[in-house]
Amino acid sequence: xxxxxxxxxxxxxxxxxxNHVVVSAATGSGKSTCLxxxxxxxGRVLVIEPRRIACTSLAEYLAQQDNTELGDQIGYAIRFExxxxxxxxxxxxxxxxxxxxxxxxxxxxFDVVMLDEFHERRWDMDLLLALLKVHNQHRLIVTSAxxxxxxxxxxxxxxxxxxxxxxxxxxxxxxANDSRAMPSKYNLSxxxxxxxxxxxxxxxxDILVFLPGKAEIQAAAGQLSHxxxxxxxxxxxxNPQQQRLALNVQSQQRVILATNxxxxxxxxxxxxxxxxxxxxxxxxxxxxxxxxNLEAIAKDSAKQRLGRAGRTQSxxxxxxxxxxxxxxxxxxxxxxxENLTELVLAAACSSNGVDSMEFIEPLPQTSKAAAxxxxxxxxxxxxxxxxxxxxxxxxxxxxxxQLAYLICAMPSKSLQQAMVDAISVLSVPARVYQxxxxxxxxxALNKRLPNHCDLEFVIALVxxxxxxxxxxxxxxxxxxxxxxxxxxxxxxxxxKHAASYDRNQLIEAIAKAKPDWLFVKRNNRRGAFGxxxxxxxxxxxxxxxxxxxxxxxxxxxxxxxxxxxQAMTLATLNAPVSxxxxxxxxxxxxxxIDACLVDGRVMAKFSYAYxxxxxxEQLVEPAGQLLIDACVALxxxxxxxxxxxxxxxxxxxxxxxxxxxxxxxxxxxTTQQYLQTKLQELGxxxxxxxxxxxxxxxxxxxxxxWELEPFIEKHPLHVQLNDLLMQVxxxxxxxxxxxxxxxxxRKDAPKKWELPAWPGxxxxxxxxxxxxxxx
Length: 775
Fold this sequence. Notes:
By secondary structure, this protein is α/β, with parallel strands linked by helices. The protein is built from 25 helices and 31 strands.
């Protein structure tokens, strides 16, 4: 069969001999299958595929076409699995595997490196390209399914080739009540069923349905069981049998329910109809953390999906949203929507640091700075952004750097083993288990693990210590593979010889290493927990019960609302902790509340709070600045060194009134500020120092009495009549005085003859909201 890509074979071979090459070609044109084989003319070829399923299927297909055993001339390498030898000429690998090989030997075993489907703009592909550009020891091939390759060509100073490909006419139909209706998850499986029924009436070929994830695929499959068609599920991590059913023509008409793994990399034969939900699960940043959210696809993805229906014949594309839905133009690159910790650490291990490389577009400064700060804090990189010994130990591990750091932070081998097993579950992208739902099963589990602790639960699950728990076999197997690999890396016993551990010690060790993972219950109706920076709500997939006051949160996911403020972060893998742990680790804020005298000694009362929640109050005997704070409070209440507090307050107010009358712009000082400064000047540090201070030592007197007293006599701060006390407020520039009611039984305003003589001033009396002129 002649593929569209054959049209550029001669030009490709000639160009590759002298230049890097950027090839733009539509999905299905044959670039992923032909270019690697042609490139063998330049030496051994490494093909980097964004997805595992593409790595395995492409290698198996090409080995079959080459009539050789898989791993002989053509092989692959993915996490936990590889089929190739040192003599294999073409090796397909995922970006994670390729990055670790680069860390080991700069990919010196290969002459040509091909980065396939680069338009997906994964962060690891961006990093690999930057590393290979700096290293400049390989011939590079970069492929893209889009025509916008100008930035790539300029970046690599590469030649460019384009294959038009074959595209038959595809009719578009939109199923929505409103032409601007956006893709929606509501009643999705029912709408998919209706679209499939319509498609079966309009096409003899296979039907490819794009759905956002495994859960939606399972729900849709349940709705399609009545159809006279073979229903196939295709997603990352699906079992090999389903992959074979999807990637090979079957005798029965198929309905293939797929995630966007089918959008590019994979060629699915005989598709004549695409049903597009318009949805995908896409990463984005929330609070500096990468979270996965349900999003509407971009226009470039919509175009890719439609193209699947017109490869070999005229086709049909049914959209489950409005024709004029305001989709974004392109899917944002991962570097703009993900935490960059892994990228920065990988760059630190494989180069002179992230700032030593030129990326195809600049990294976001905020995300990059946050990643550098975090990795510096855990001592994974140094001040020059190069990997430390710890960083080089963490990077090759097949898990997130923060999680790898947690294993290193455990103080004993038994806790390291427990941490490894818990992290193994956290590192699997698919859901590994479902908690029991029947009361009998819940009771049985609570008797087995009475602490309502998810952390304890997942460790027992990986160690195969639980029965009657519904698990996803492939996901659990992957978690156990993680555990086995990490145990080897950290020189720990095999899982079957796993050591027992102290749950409280494990929780305390994690909290010490990652204190921001501690959350306390807030006093709100949503039952939310906070850590002072973010808020989470226990998910239904957690064993945490309603009595929990604080918890350690190891994993979360985002649940979108109608607006940004309505979005929620749900905590799924949690461990209950006591509030005392928060206090003992010193994570809260200690705030001075008040002071009192106990047996003649000054005592300070403190509130200890975390994330806005007051945990307890403490009464301590203070020293230093805390002693000064406590003495100030007592002096102001008149309980210490009386009558200093009263004298200072009165004298300060009189001095400030005098300065105001004489047009001074000097900044006013409060009684509290004055006392703070005065006690510091007197050298107050210890309780015994208080006995050396007399009230008169604190009195405030800046002006001479002969100067101040006549002024105050004419301008009193308070006026006391027989049945009325008033506070006097002066405005010397406006020549106005307001008498503010303080206390007394008098109902009427005072008379002018009862008051001091204030020549030239207009006098008003104010009680509550009523203001009258004094006559």
